[in-house]
Amino acid sequence: MIKKLAKRYIFFITALLITIMITVFNDDIGLRSFNIAFSSFKQMISVVPPIMIILGLIDVWIPREAMMKYMGDDSGIKGISLAILIGSIAAGPMYAAFPFTKVLLKKGVRFSNIIIFMNAWCVTKISTLMFEISSLGYKFTLARLLIDIPGVIIMGYLVHALMPKDELEMIYKSNLD
Length: 177
Prior knowledge:
Blueprint: H1 2-8, H2 10-25, H3 27-61, H4 64-71, H5 76-89, H6 97-106, H7 111-123, H8 126-136, H9 138-162, H10 165-174
Helix pairs in contact: 2-3, 5-7, 6-7, 7-9, 8-9
Protein name: Putative permease
Subcellular location: Cell membrane
Pfam families: ArsP_1
C-alpha cells in the first residue's frame, strides 16, 4: 500500500524534498517556492469543486446517446461546432478541461471532437478573447482566430488519424467506469 502511494506520488515527494533542501540552504528561495506552490493550490481548489459539480450534473443529465448523436462518430460539422463552442465558453485554467475530457470519453464523443474541444479551451476562450481585444485590438484577435479555428480542427483530425486504433479503444474502455 505504501509502495503504491509512493510510486503514485513520486514526483510530488521528490519536488517537496528538493524544495525542503533548497530552503535549508537558501530560505528566501525556498519560502518563495512554498508560497508559489500554496498560491497555485489555492487557485486550483477554487476552480476544481465547481467544475466537478458541473461535470456530475452533465454526467447524470445528458444521456450517452445524446452526446453520441451530437458529438459522436457521425456528428460531422455539428460535433465540431459544439466542441468549439463548449471549449470557448469554458472558464478556468487548462487543467480544469481534463476532468471534462474524461466525461466526454465516457459519453462516447468522437476523439477528434475531444481534441478540438481541448484546443478550443486553450485558444478560443471568450474571456481571453475579450481581454485580447481590449489589449491588442479586434483586428489582431480576428486574424488570430481565423488562423486558430481551422488549426484547432485540423489538429483534432490529425491527432485522431495518427492514434493507433487499439490505443483509442483502450482509452475509451478505461473511461467507461
